Amino acid sequence: LISSLGIGRTFQKLKPFLDQTLLENVMIGALATGINLNQARNKALEMIDLVDLIDKRHHFAKELSTGQRKRLELARAMATEPKLLMMDEVTGGVDQKTVPGLVRLIKKLNKLGVTILTIEHNMKVIMDISHKILALDQGKKIAFDKPKTVQLNEKVIDAYLGGVNATSS
C-alpha cells in the first residue's frame, strides 16, 4: 500500500463505499495504517471533523453531494496520516460555491504539514493553493517556479493559451 510510504491519494472519479456511512468509509482508510478498530474510529472522527463533515458522520455516502464526497475522499486519505497527499482534480465536478471551501481545506491540510501534489484544471485554484507550479508541455517541463512567475512565463503562455510557439496535439 502506498499509505505505508506516507502517501495519500484522492481520485478524480470518486469511489466512496456508497452503502457505508462516512464514519465507516474513513475508518477503512485509518485501518490501512495497522491500528485497531477503536483507534481507527477515533482517527476517522478526527478526520471527519477536520473536513467539516462531523454532523454527517452517520449518513451514508450515497446521500452526500459531490462537494461533500470530495471532502470524504480527503478525510479518508488523511486518515492514513500521509506526508504527501496526491490529489486528482479535487475541485472537478463541484459547483463554484463549493470551490472556496475546498481551497480553504487544502490550505489547512498543507498547514498541518502535508505536502500537496495536485493535478487541477482550475487555474484560479492552482494559483491560490500553490507555492510552486510545474508546467508541462507534451510531457516536458517548461517551467517550475512560483505561481506568478509561471503564469507570466512565455513558454507557458504559448503552450497553454495557444501562442505562436505552441505545439498541437
End-to-end Cα distance, whole Å, is: 35 Å
- Summing up helix and strand content along with how strands pair, one would put the structural category as alpha/beta
What is the typical, i.e. mean, pLDDT? Answer: 91
Shape: elongated
Quantity of strands, as a count: 5
Strand order within the widest beta sheet: 1-2-3
Largest sheet: 3 strands, parallel
Helix-strand topology string: EHHHEHEHEEHH
Helix-residue proportion = 40-55%
Count of separate DSSP helical elements: 7
Rg over CA atoms, rounded to whole Å, is: 18 Å
CATH topology of the largest domain: Rossmann fold
Number of domains: 2
CATH architecture of the largest domain: 3-Layer(aba) Sandwich
CATH homology group of the largest domain: P-loop containing nucleotide triphosphate hydrolases
SSE order and pairing:
Blueprint: E1 7-9, H1 22-31, H2 37-50, H3 66-78, E2 84-88, H4 99-111, E3 115-119, H5 123-129, E4 133-137, E5 140-145, H6 147-152, H7 154-161
Parallel strand pairs: 1-2, 2-3
Antiparallel strand pairs: 4-5
Helix pairs in contact: 1-2, 1-3, 2-3
